Amino acid sequence: MDVNIVEKANQIIKTCDAVYLGVIDENGYPNVSTVSTVKPENIFEAYFATGMSANKTQRLLNDNRASICYRSDNNNITLVGEAEILTDQETKGRYWLDWFINHFPGGETDPNYCIIKLTSKRASLWIDNESAEFTIDELLTVQSRCGLLCSFCTYKESQSCGGCIETNGHPFHGECPVAMCCQGKEHNHCGECENLPGKCPVEDCRKIDANGTYLCNHCESTSCGKLHSYSYKDPIYGDNPPGARIVVCRMWAERS
Predict the structure, then answer these.
(1) Phi and psi dihedrals of 71, rounded to 5?
(2) Taking the model in full, what pTM does it have?
């Protein structure tokens, strides 16, 4: 598994209006229903609006284990974790959408209105005919300097690669300039660097040069040129979607 499939999953989640929610019923059997997502962002957490009197809510109060499944075209994202029923007014206001009034006439303060929060523990992905299964703890473990997921990499065995952390910046292909830069700044990973790159504001910047590695003035002035080139512009070894390893670096930094 590489970083690309994780970011593809994040992007798909943002486009899904509805998902399947599975809970454990009072007889110990799985019970699945369709629920509407609220401001979906990534595979780590999911939020749904429902009523306190709903069967799913009562079942989750009895057993908080749950699973959700996002389906888009031929892609499938299944997350398994633990659910919470949130009733504080701050949360209810943050996730309120205008059309909820059709179900909760009392608005944001309607006593029946609540939010289900699912915190993922593990994920099973099938995207673009590729599969991946992992726990969230595995994903949150820092595995490289640049955001690559070395513990899942096929080069680990096929090329006897020790990864940039264990080899002090010298994986199987030789000295890595990104790893050396990161280590020179005494960072654990690039997510700790103030120059962590983002997408260049110039439209079609990635196509400026025929070899796909040219950095325009905006790239050079706003981010780390070394990591930007690898993540956003390298046509062979770069990320697809572009910036996937940057997302992982930010994730490591935010959740460390």
Answers:
(1) -130, 125
(2) 0.84
